[in-house]
Amino acid sequence: MKEILALGMLLLTTGAMAQRNPHQGEMHKAYKELTSEQRATLLSKKMVLALDLNTQQQKQVESLLKERFESRAKMRNAHREAVRDSSKRLSPEERYSRMNAHLDQEIAFQTEMKNILNESQFEMWKKRHNAKKMGHQKSLKEYRRGKAMHKAHRG
């Protein structure tokens, strides 16, 4: 009897902890509404706390992030316009070109970060950056899996 009760409590607490934070969607929406400059300021301040940046490094990182957010916004808008204009998918050459351009930007960004940060800061940034990227990929897979299940149940 005690084992069943303990198992039940374990399942209830695990289930409660697995629920999504109800404010997470609100925070994501609020973050999307920020300008590139506001995003760069917030992220650079987070990096100051995490990596112990000095003021010069903070200014350099903030300007680099601002440029990055602005270029991403331009690319995103261009992609949306292209999708609206044509109902066809990208050709393999176009897809390759976009992926190649994105990777070139990532390499340039990483090189700039390496120039701004010292070795220990760069290593810590790289670990945090990769962990964040992996977490995003995992949540994207879960989202897609849920979307696929939803389609299967509807159809």
Keyword list:
155 residues; mainly alpha; extended; 86% helix
Report on this model:
By secondary structure, this protein is mostly helical. The chain has one domain. Helices cover 86% and strands 0% of the residues. Helix 3 (36-51) crosses helix 4 and helix 4 (55-85) runs antiparallel to helix 5. The N and C termini lie far apart (43 Å).
List the helices and strands and how they pair.
Layout lengths: L1 H17 L5 H9 L3 H16 L3 H31 L6 H25 L2 H36 L1
Helix pairs in contact: 3-4, 4-5
In short:
The chain is an all-alpha fold. The chain has one domain. Helix content is 86%, strand content 0%.
Structure summary, number of beta strands: 0
H and E order = HHHHHH
Overall 3D shape: extended
- Main sheet, how many strands, which sense, barrel? none
Structural domains: how many: 1
β-sheet strand percentage: under 5%
Low-confidence stretches: none
Quaternary structure: single chain
* Fraction of residues in H or I helices: over 70%
Distance between the termini: 43 Å
Assign the structural class, choosing from mainly alpha, mainly beta, alpha/beta, alpha+beta, or little secondary structure. mainly alpha
